[in-house]
Request: fold
Amino acid sequence: MENRFVRCASATILGVRAAPVLVEVSGGGGLPGVTLVGLARGAVKESLIRIRAALSVVRGAEPKGVPRVIVNLLPAELPKSESALDLAVALGLLAMELPALGGQLDGYRFFGELSLGGKIEPVRGAALVAEVSRAEEDTALFVPRKNADEACIIPGVRVLPADTLQAILAHLDGSRPIEAHNPPPRLRTRAPTVCLSDVQGQATAKRALEIAAAGGHNLLLIGPPGSGKTMLARRLPTLLPPLSLDERIEVTRVHSAAGVLADHGLFEDRPFRAPHHTASDVALCGGGSNPRPGEISLAHNGVLFLDELPEFSRRALEALREPLEDGAVHVARASLSVTFPARSMFIGAMNPCACGYFREFGSPPAAAGVPRCLCSFQSIQRYRSRLSGPLLDRIDLHVQVDGVPWRTLMRREGGEPSHAVLERVLEARHRQHARLGADRLNAMMDARDLTAL
Reply:
């Protein structure tokens, strides 16, 4: 039987970037069957089962007339674990049966997962693949319809949203063209639902928040339960300047790579991540056999808040040391090394002891009705030793947050609103940029900068 050969373009996700993948399909003589080569991993190997089921729906049966088919994923040295390669592989197999289809695939890039019924399911990383499509100067990029807005954040890419494999075939043969997706300009509006004036009292802690926001410093809040530590931390994003366009794209790319781009649009607000204290080191810093960003990378250009800091596992906390220092997470695997951005502000909150009511010597007297601490000295030491010295050294500001007397709470005098503090933060950052250079803050100063002062 005459050998047939088809090529179809796709991509695979590697950290927070995508790499082009060329799907080669060759058919000819030999025993019936489909062989997949090119360093394909779990989900890609399983894709043949899904694709066969989808093709049986599209064509009424599996492709006929080609006894043996070899599917090669180039470049072979790149690990490929994306189910989003389904679409390109399926079209390549169909082209073995329909020779005219092979020539129609040129210039297009296909990215999407197939269901058993031939529907195209949403995938992660559409924005990253759009960058590849622009760099490769593709005619158009086919993506699942639910990923179309995400792919359109990259300018200069013609995005064609598709719901089914049949819809793509109809577009390629010219019977039912798919219109390019052109969503209206839409950003997530910056409409904070919280304000610093919501917090009663806590003038010292509020001042610490302002200093941290101005200089990009990490912050640790220490105080008894109910003193407002979490409430203060959740208002830190309202004191930070709006994201620049480059920062919005960076944040969107990270969330796209993680598959958690909830509204499929370009980010406007600074991210605020508050993982549970049972989170593992991989959940916090990223990783896995197919590396994905962790919480500290999802908080890139925003705030990472760890409440009940000593309750996190020692392994998870120690894994944060390098990202807090370098602003990046380096994940190395046998066949792949990736780097995730992690330039975020870190804010932690903790009780002073296990019961939460220990008071340092010299602290003001506790308010009436506040329980007394019954923890032993050894118990307090054990509790605090859960945080290592090297980790604490990476936190610039340590602030004691005492409980607020009930008389202060009843006055309902919250103090300055967030927008008033933000004006001072912007002025302080402007001075830092003039002294240190664009995009640099006091928290990023090194020994040479300190010597120059």
